[in-house]
C-alpha cells in the first residue's frame, strides 16, 4: 500500500471527538474508520475540502480526479496507480453530501447558498427549524412556496439562530394568515420579500416589517385576505406604520395589486421615506389621495384597473417627484373636471403608461377615445352644451305644465250683477227668467 493509504497520511484528530467538532464530523470519523484504506483516504480528503458525511452515500459519487486534485501530497505515480484502482471499481468513489445536503428538508433542494421547497405541501412552518445556521452558513436565498403555513407570528428558525446572509425570502402561496415582527426577526438583511398569493388577515404587531432594515422590494400581490374595505384599509395602515427605528429608506417598491382594496387612508405610506414605485393596479379604488410632503420620493404610481373616474390636479401637487403614471382601464369621465389633468398630460414632463388603454368611459360621444387624443376643450364640449340646453328646456316645459294644471284647478270667481243693466247679458236671454213689472 502506498504511503497515501497509511494512517500516517491522515490527521490523527479525524478519529477523535471533541467539543469543537460538529455531529457530522463525528459521523464522518466513524464512517472514515470503517472504510477500506484506499477508499478511506478519498473519504478523508473530501472531508478536508469542507464536505461532511452523515452515512447516506447510496447513489452519490464523484470521479477519482477530484481526489487527485485534493491530495497534492501524494506523488504522481502513486496517485496514478490509485486512480486506476478506482477506475476498475467503476471510475467512482463515494461522494460525501455537503452540510446543506445533509440537513436539507425532505422534498426540497439545498445548495450552498439556497434552499428551494416548491409545492411540497408542508402543513406548518416547522420546516424552517431544520435550517440551522451552522448547517447553512452561506444561505442567501430561501424559496418556500405552495404550502399551508397559516399563522406565522412566531420566529421561524431555531432559537438563537440568525441568518444574516439571507437577502431573498420567497413565501408565495403558503396560506399565511398572520405575520408579526418575530416572523422576520432572524433574517434582518432580507432585501427582497415575496408574500404573493396568501391570505393575510391580521398582524400581531404594528409595523411587522420593522426588523427588515435593508428591505428594498416588497411584493404582496393577492396577499390580503377577505375583509371589508374599511378593515382592509386599517390593516394596510398597521402594516406600514414605520417608526424611528426603521423608516424604510431602502424600500423603493411596494406591490399591492389584485387585493380588492377599496379605500386607502391618505397617510398609509407617508412613513415609507424611500418609496419610489407603488403598484396598486387591479383593485377597487375610486380615488388616491395623499397629503403634501407625504411621498416626496415617489416616481412611479400604477393605478390601472381600478374604478377611478377623475384625477384631481392636487395629486400632482402632492407628488413632486412623480414622473410615471398609469391610469389605464379606469372608467374615466371626460368632462370639465378632468380638463386640468389632460392639460398636464400634454406636457413632456410626465410618462403616461398604456396610453392606448387610457380612454373615456363617458360621455357616450367620447366613450372609448383615448384621453390623449382629445383636442377639444372639455369645458366647452358641444355635446355638453347641447345636453345643458336640453335639460333647461325640459325643466321649463315641466314648470309650464305644472302652472297650467294649477290654473285649471283654481276655483273661478262668482260674478255679481247690480241694477237692471246687468240683466241684458246673454245669460238672461231666457224669457222665463226675465223680470216682470206690474
UniProtKB/TrEMBL annotation:
Which UniProt key words apply to this protein?
A: Glycoprotein, Leucine-rich repeat, Membrane, Repeat, Signal, Transmembrane, Transmembrane helix
Ranges where the LRRCT domain occurs: 330-380
The UniProt entry, under Gene3D superfamilies, shows: Ribonuclease Inhibitor (3.80.10.10)
Q: Kindly list the residue ranges recorded as spanning the membrane.
A: 385-403
InterPro entries attached to this UniProt entry: Cys-rich_flank_reg_C (IPR000483), Leu-rich_rpt (IPR001611), Leu-rich_rpt_typical-subtyp (IPR003591), LRR_dom_sf (IPR032675)
Q: Where in the cell is it found?
A: Membrane
Q: Which GO terms describe its cellular component?
A: plasma membrane
Q: Name one GO molecular function term.
A: signaling receptor activity
How is this protein positioned relative to the membrane?
Answer: Single-pass membrane protein
* Gene Ontology BP, a term: signal transduction
Quote the protein name from its UniProt record: LRRCT domain-containing protein
Q: Which species is this UniProt entry from?
A: Diploscapter pachys
Amino acid at each position: 500500500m502506498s504511503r497515501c493509504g497509511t494512517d500516517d497520511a491522515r490527521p490523527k484528530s479525524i478519529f477523535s471527538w471533541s467539543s469543537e467538532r460538529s455531529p457530522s464530523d463525528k459521523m464522518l470519523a466513524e464512517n472514515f474508520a470503517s472504510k477500506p484504506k484506499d477508499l478511506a483516504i478519498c473519504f478523508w480528503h473530501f472531508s478536508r475540502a469542507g464536505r461532511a458525511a452523515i452515512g447516506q452515500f447510496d447513489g452519490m459519487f464523484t470521479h477519482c480526479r477530484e481526489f487527485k486534485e485534493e491530495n497534492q501530497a501524494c506523488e504522481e505515480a502513486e496517485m496514478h496507480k490509485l486512480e486506476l484502482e478506482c477506475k476498475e471499481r467503476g471510475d467512482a468513489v463515494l461522494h460525501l453530501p455537503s452540510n446543506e445536503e445533509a440537513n436539507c428538508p425532505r422534498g426540497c433542494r439545498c445548495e450552498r447558498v439556497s434552499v428551494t421547497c416548491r409545492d411540497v405541501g408542508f402543513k406548518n412552518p416547522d420546516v424552517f427549524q431544520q435550517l440551522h445556521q451552522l448547517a447553512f452558513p452561506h444561505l442567501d436565498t430561501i424559496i418556500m412556496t405552495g404550502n399551508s403555513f397559516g399563522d406565522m407570528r412566531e420566529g421561524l428558525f431555531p432559537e438563537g439562530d440568525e441568518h444574516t446572509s439571507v437577502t431573498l425570502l420567497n413565501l408565495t402561496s403558503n396560506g399565511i394568515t398572520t405575520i408579526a415582527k418575530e416572523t422576520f426577526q432572524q433574517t434582518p438583511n432580507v432585501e427582497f420579500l415575496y408574500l404573493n398569493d396568501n391570505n393575510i388577515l391580521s398582524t400581531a404587531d404594528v409595523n411587522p416589517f420593522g426588523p427588515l432594515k435593508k428591505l428594498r422590494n416588497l411584493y404582496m400581490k393577492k396577499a390580503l385576505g377577505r375583509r371589508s374595505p374599511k378593515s382592509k384599509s386599517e390593516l394596510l395602515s398597521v402594516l406600514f406604520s414605520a417608526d424611528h427605528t426603521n423608516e424604510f429608506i431602502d424600500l423603493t417598491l411596494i406591490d399591492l395589486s389584485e387585493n380588492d382594496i377599496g379605500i386607502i387612508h391618505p397617510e398609509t405610506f407617508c412613513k415609507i421615506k424611500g418609496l419610489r414605485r407603488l403598484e396598486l393596479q387591479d383593485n377597487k379604488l375610486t380615488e388616491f389621495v395623499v397629503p403634501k410632503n407625504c411621498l416626496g420620493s415617489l416616481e412611479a404610481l400604477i393605478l390601472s384597473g381600478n374604478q377611478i373616474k377623475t384625477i384631481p390636479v392636487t395629486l400632482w401637487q402632492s407628488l413632486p417627484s412623480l414622473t410615471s403614471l398609469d391610469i389605464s382601464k379606469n372608467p374615466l369621465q371626460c368632462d370639465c373636471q378632468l380638463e386640468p389633468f389632460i392639460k398636464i398630460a400634454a406636457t413632456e414632463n410626465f410618462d403616461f403608461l398604456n396610453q392606448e388603454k387610457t380612454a373615456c368611459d363617458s360621455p357616450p360621444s367620447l366613450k372609448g377615445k383615448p384621453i390623449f387624443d382629445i383636442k377639444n376643450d372639455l369645458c366647452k364640449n358641444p355635446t355638453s352644451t347641447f345636453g345643458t340646453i336640453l335639460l333647461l328646456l325640459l325643466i321649463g316645459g315641466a314648470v309650464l305644465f305644472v302652472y297650467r294644471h294649477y290654473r285649471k284647478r283654481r276655483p273661478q270667481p262668482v260674478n255679481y250683477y247690480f241694477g237692471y243693466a246687468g240683466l241684458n247679458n246673454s245669460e238672461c236671454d231666457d224669457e222665463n227668467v226675465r223680470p216682470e213689472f206690474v
